[in-house]
Design a protein that fits this description.
alpha/beta, FAD/NAD(P)-binding domain, binds flavin-adenine dinucleotide
Length: 343
């Protein structure tokens, strides 16, 4: 992902920093959620300024910025964030050690107080350009219109078929030491990887524990130099093919091998493939990057005018803080585009 460097002038021009102006919350009656149907009847059929598809950390952060900018926002969310199986989330300021659900519930409760933001539980299945914006259809047959779209749909991690892997994902099979390394520091940890990735992961995870085993899950393709360096750090290399992760409620007990042997581990780090959680951006023609992320510019605009994307679906830097930050920025950029088009 390209590093984002914005000058102060660019930020003022594109983000507007209208955020800084004095805001009068008393203009709004804080009321419980009205139904979307009632809302549509109350307004005209133009309906929403922005539809946000994906109501997790990136989508909710954008909704907060847009809702506070008096934009009519609809969030369509299918309730499947990528971290839903992890018991506790870490490394997000003020929320360290909370469950993923607790974090989004607090956000949803706070956002619900803004009468400008509506929630719709469901799956968006298609999108199209219309004369005055975009239309999104849901799996249950509703259709909603908006001037702009934001895809905050995240990615779906692809689980290897090995028995027990999917059940342990996010609990004892981990992807990120910054999120989960501290809790298992200095412990009996494995790394499942091969080649260049294995070498990089050994270097990284060695910082959290010196009690490491590398499982190449088949013949090692490490170079002789890499193997020597790994061994110098007392990291054992095991080439056997893994047949199963024996576990209790997602906590690994033993790693079983095709040759019948087994090794006990507290946790393992590995990397898995991913696909976009939502294919609508690709279907409506948004350009993708080589790594299968939605291509966005410094202002989170996709290649289609009026369509934005933020969060994991655009970036390999996966963390709640980063997704939230992207959502907040994108909300401001979208509001600024709406202001520019109307003023
Ligand atoms: C196992 C695991 C553990 C993690 N632990 C941590 C941690 O401890 N700390 C940390 O900072 N980060 C952690 N992360 C990373 C963090 O969870 C992500 O960076 C973050 O969730 C990304 O937020 P997002 O809003 O972009 O996407 P997501 O949180 O994945 O949310 C995407 C949302 O879009 C919805 N959606 C997708 N398609 C559609 C559709 N067609 N219609 C309607 N809704 C749709 C989904 O249901 C989902 O609610 C972890 C990730 C994983 C996989």
């Amino acid at each position: 992902m390209k590093e984002i460097r914005l000058t102060r002038r660019q930020i003022l021009k594109n983000g507007g920093l209208v955020l800084a102006g004095a805001f009068a919350p008393s203009l709004f009656t804080l009321s419980p959620l009205t139904t979307i149907e009632k809302y549509i009847a109350m307004t005209d059929k133009t309906v929403f300024d922005v539809i946000i598809i994906g109501g997790s950390y990136a989508g909710l952060s954008a909704a907060l910025a847009l809702g506070r900018s008096m934009r009519k926002v609809l969030i369509i969310d299918s309730g499947k964030p990528c971290n839903r199986q992890t018991p506790y989330s870490h490394n997000f300021l003020t929320q360290d050690g909370q469950t993923p659900k607790q974090i989004s519930e607090v956000a949803k409760n706070q956002i619900s107080k803004y009468d400008t933001v509506k929630f719709h539980e469901g799956i968006a299945v298609s999108g199209m350009k219309t004369a005055d914006g975009f239309e999104i259809k849901t799996q249950s047959g509703e259709s909603f219109g908006a001037k702009k779209l934001l895809f905050a749909t995240g990615v779906a991690d692809e689980m290897p078929a090995t028995k027990g892997f999917a059940e342990c994902w996010g609990i004892s099979i981990l992807h990120c030491p910054y999120c989960h390394g501290y809790e298992i520091r200095d412990n009996n940890i494995g790394i499942i990887a091969n080649g260049e990735t294995a070498f990089e992961m050994c270097r990284l995870i060695n910082h959290w524990s010196k009690n490491l085993t590398l499982f190449t899950n088949g013949k090692s393709v490490l170079t002789a130099e890499q193997t020597k360096k790994i061994k110098q750090h007392h990291i054992q290399i095991i080439e056997g093919e893994i047949s199963e992760f024996e576990h209790s409620k997602g906590n690994i007990q033993n790693i079983l091998f095709k040759d019948g042997s087994k090794i006990s581990k507290v946790a393992v780090f590995t990397r898995v493939g991913f696909k976009q959680h939502c294919e609508i951006p690709r279907e409506i023609g948004c350009e993708m990057t080589e790594q299968n992320f939605i291509k966005v510019d410094d202002f989170n605009k996709t290649s289609i005018h009026g369509v934005f994307a933020a969060g994991d679906n655009t970036s390999m830097m996966r963390a709640i803080a980063i997704a939230s930050s992207a959502g907040t920025r994108t909300g401001a950029f979208m509001n600024k585009e709406l202001i520019d088009e109307a003023f």
